[in-house]
Amino acid sequence: MKLPKRHDDAEARREQALTPMIDLVFLLLTFWICASVGRVSEQVLATELSGTAIELAAPTDEPPPPLGELWVRLDRAGNLTTVTVNDRTYPGLEALEEAFQGLAAADAAGELPVILDVGGAVPAGDVVRVYDAARAAGFEQVSFAADAPQAGN
Predict the structure, then answer these.
(1) Would you give the DSSP letter of residue 49?
(2) Which residues cross the membrane (predicted)?
């Protein structure tokens, strides 16, 4: 009986290890060809650049106030709740409800966000009444203002 040589066995293992690598190279080549077929060729567009320097405005520390917000401030003075909307004071909650209805008639209710800034002594019933009046007038974005947290607290 003839024993196989170890040299032949090592050569067979080398050929077997090379076959998957060749398959992988062909797969990558096929993928690259398929991916590059639908690619749009890029072209250089001629542009004229001015030789002058562009001056940038210095950034401000405070952002500009957002346009189109209704800030409703509720404070307590004695037994009455005072209402201020964008620096305009209303004598009572009934007048505020009428103002909300007027804005709703002007089709501004769906676009403007209402921000309620409530003082600490204002009764919860008044806050709910103002919130309900804004929602009933058609304002979709009614939110509450919050103080920024103090550093170190």
Answers:
(1) -
(2) none
Domains of the chain, first to last = 70-144 (3.30.420.270)
* DSSP conformational letter for 59: P
**In this structure, are residues 20 and 13 in contact, taking their beta carbons and an 8 Å threshold?**
no
Q: Which residues contact 131 (CB under 8 A, 6 or more apart)?
A: 116, 142
**Pair 114, 141: CB distance under 8 Å:** yes
CA distance 47 to 44: 9
pLDDT-derived band at 30 (thresholds 50, 70, 90) equals: very high
Output the pTM of the full model: 0.53
Q: Which helix (H) or strand (E) holds 104?
A: helix 93-105
List, in order, residues 6 or more apart from 92 with CB less than 8 Å away.
80, 81, 83
Average pLDDT on 67-74 reads 81
Out of 26-30, 45-49, 107-111, give the one with best mean pLDDT. 26-30
How many alpha carbons lie under 13 Å from residue 93 in its C-beta half-sphere? Answer: 17
The token duo for 80 is 């009455």
